[in-house]
TrEMBL record:
It comes from Nezara viridula (Southern green stink bug). Pfam families: Metallophos (PF00149). Its main location: membrane. Coiled coil: none annotated. Residues 55-291 form the Calcineurin-like phosphoesterase domain. This is Metallophosphoesterase 1 homolog. It is found in: Membrane.
């Protein structure tokens, strides 16, 4: 093999350029194609007044950070780097006001020790750090504290304290009311978790009714403007399966036909009806299934969107959602991150190109030297 300085410089530059493109630039190329949606005036609720500026919200789900027990170290390194680059690129491009992560932040949150959980939390905040002016809220998922019958008061408190994430939470921004629910507390069996959540939901329902009809409540709430709330939770509302879903990031056909198990793959019908009747949400956004879905609940005039997993480990074409929201309207846009298969393909094509250049260059140099010797 004939090696020259210029040859080494070209090969080195090509390898570095390939790495930079596949690990940094490709995220900008993909995500810059996604932008904030525009509100459609025809979909606004004429009965609700909206005076504030639209709120820009980013939503994602099922990050599933690997713990110490499951997964290879390279698997953890690769997928967490992907999520960090995608999230930080989205932050720089979109600059949302609020970010919501809808459960299963961790893959082993229900099994890990206190020291492992502390490391988990620190790693999460490193990967999903937000700039000043952007708030971050999380919803608990089954991989964070366990399914209903595996949850202890200790596990619930540990997660709630770390992320300020109670079982039922409502807060309002610019006249928009957000309700965040612990899906595992919707079992309806009267346990320590469910009974407390039901009481909080009842109080929330009364509060919303008071905002809607202040004269009937004697000023028992400090909120003055009513709008139908937006509900965020980990489990989807009750549905039989994903068969009716028709999204680019939907489940594979064989999975779409599988029947959902209530309280396991989705909320029970009773719990779903209870949430609809108590809260009357105008929009529901969920996660858990790792696949995208859009469902219209005609009886309650509400759309539900299920987000696919943000992690390449669970989805080749992960996505997140951008939402522009006012008190009486909203618009949504789903953003698709680079497919893992696409990045692998780029590496293969780039590597083959470098190899082809190496072989061609070596042959050219070899024949030049032979000709020179003959002369």
């Amino acid at each position: 093999m004939i090696i020259t300085r210029s040859y080494v410089a070209i090969i080195f530059t090509s390898v570095i350029s390939l790495f930079i493109f596949c690990e940094f630039v490709v995220y900008y190329v993909s995500l810059i194609q996604c932008s904030w949606p525009t509100l459609d005036k025809s979909t606004a609720d004429p009965n609700i007044q909206s005076d504030g500026e639209p709120l820009r919200v980013m939503l994602l789900a099922d990050t599933h950070l690997l713990g110490p027990k499951r997964g290879h170290w390279f698997d953890k390194l690769r997928r967490e780097w992907q999520m960090q680059r995608a999230f930080q690129t989205a932050m720089s491009l979109h600059q949302p006001d609020i970010v919501f992560i809808l459960g299963d932040l961790f893959d082993e949150g229900l099994w890990c020790s206190d020291s492992e959980f502390a490391a988990y939390v620190e790693r999460f905040h490193t990967l999903f750090r937000t700039p000043e002016g952007t708030e971050l809220f999380v919803v608990v998922g089954n991989h964070d504290i366990g399914f209903h019958y595996g949850i202890s008061p200790y596990l619930k408190k540990r997660f709630s304290d770390a992320f300020n994430s109670p079982s039922v939470q409502m807060f309002s921004v610019r006249g928009i009311h957000f309700v965040l629910i612990n899906s595992m507390a919707m079992e309806g069996d009267g346990c320590f978790l469910c009974r407390s959540a039901e009481i909080q939901l009842l109080n929330l329902s009364k509060k919303l009714k008071c905002i809607k009809s202040p004269s009937s409540c004697n000023g028992e709430t400090d909120l003055t403007h009513y709008s139908r709330p937006i509900l965020f939770q980990h489990f989807p509302m009750y549905r039989e399966s994903d068969e009716a879903c028709n999204e680019p990031d939907e489940a594979p056909e064989d999975e779409k036909r599988l029947k959902f198990r209530e309280r396991w793959d989705c909320l029970s019908k009773e719990s779903s009806d209870m949430l609809f009747e108590m809260l009357n949400p105008r929009l529901i956004v969920t996660g858990h299934t790792h696949h995208g879905c859009r469902k219209y609940h005609k009886q309650y005039n509400a759309f539900e969107y299920t987000l696919s997993s943000f992690n390449w480990r669970n989805k080749d074409n992960p996505s997140y959602m951008l939402a522009v929201i006012t008190a009486n309207n909203y618009a949504l846009e789903k953003c698709y991150m680079p497919c893992e298969s696409t990045v692998i393909f780029l590496y293969i094509v780039g590597a083959l190109g470098i190899i082809a250049y190496t072989i061609t260059t070596q042959r050219r140099l070899y024949w030049r030297i032979r000709v020179f010797k003959v002369l």
